[in-house]
## 1
Amino acid sequence: MFEKTQCDGIVSLSEDGNYISTYPHEDVIHPEFSHHGKVYDKNGNVVIEGFGSVSADGKRFALLLDTTTIIYSLPDKIVIKEYPIQGTDVVLSSDGRFIVVVGTKTDTASTNNIIVIDSQEDRIWETYASYTNTSPHIFLTKDGKYLLVISYQENKLFYYNLY
């Protein structure tokens, strides 16, 4: 267990409590901090710096960079795969197989869509986003099949069947 003196926002938490991913409170106030964040272990040690999400099983972490989304294995922090996707939010299915990024592909023409990665089949597809907010909050079901998008700017919930 650990205690922090600065309160960050919580992005995700592994089911066993071994990892927690956070974003700085300044992210809400200053958009230039939007790709900042940290992953902590249960002792409060910083494991990875950068904004992203931990899978519920605690075995994978998706890191959002300016033009790339990187998938790491945990605890060894080995890069599994890099994708040319620029995102504003990311979630993983509980086993880390499915990764959902709100953003755009950087290697092809793309609009602000929902990008789904099946890491087991090494397949990527886009789902048209019917919301207009460019940085909604997203939640994924345990199996990665259904996505809930909350657009506070539009005061709406959107529900997607991804596969």
## 2
Amino acid sequence: MTTHRASSVAGAVRGLATLAVVLAASLSPLGAEDERPDAKDVRPKTSDAMASAVAKAHEAKDAKRLQELATSRRVDAWMVLDRLRARDLGPAAAAWARAVAHDDGGALQNYVTRRADPAGEAALREALTEGRRLMDTGRLKDARATFQAAEADLTTIPGLLISADDARMRGALGESEGAAAELERVLQATRELGWHALAARILLYQVRGIKSSGRDAGVTERLDAALAAARASRSQRTIGSIQAARGDMLAEVGRPKASLAALEDAERLLRPLGPSRELVGVLGSLGLRQERSGNLEAALATYRRAQVVATALGAPSSQADTLVNIAAVHTRRGEYGEALTQFKQARALYARAGNPSAALGMLINVASIQQRQGLS
């Protein structure tokens, strides 16, 4: 019996969808809060709290305290810098950059001294937002024109992201050689500035470019380099995101065991950070790999963990996706009553989420299961 999984379900945010989530996650001043995975001591745990502690230490001219904060911090240094700049604490921001210079190869201090003026950086952020909106609506040429008009400064995070997205558009429009050259230029700039997390994501862009050309050569090496860069960033979220993308891509190049290991590590890293759509996607991908390897018991347990997370998020579409995956395993095991219950619940959730086509697919599944029940 063929089971209909909604298009958003079949991969459970796999392949390109997972990569898009990973690559769209902003970094440093544009990103979400990151914590160092190996921090043991009790220090300020948010960028706002750290910025306040840094400002206080700087005002008191307490160099020892400032260095202590820099070396044992649990939050991303760039986020702290962003908070200090937002409070117009330029001298404290410069002191903070100097304090962490030994820890990030001087990249933060370099950013302070070389970054574009605030108005220019704001314009780059606006261009990035508009270009990505055009990308999402399929207007690739317009998106590329927006990115090109921005005249991106490669010493700023938004400038680098604009250049990377411009390269993606060139690739999508058939300019594969130009796209590859542009991505390599952006990668070198990120490495020179010591922005490890962004370098990791640029490497994933390169992998996707290689895959889109129908080749596998160099994929594994770049995936390993992306993981090394993510680990150098010491951001738990970044490492987890990169591992999630690695897991999907390793499966695509025929390395199922390595794929499983990467996805298991991604779950281990992302779960402590709380419920997220990314975690639901990771669990969906992990369950799929387990299902395809024939380990239906493990797949079912993984999908149920995804269901718990999706429920915590309160997202009906994600909840429905996970129920469909659970139902598919029950169907394979001949547990038609359980499968029927899950498909019916998924249909109701898809309808509530405003996805009539997925809800219709569940009706087909229900009818198919009922037919199978009648034959058994």
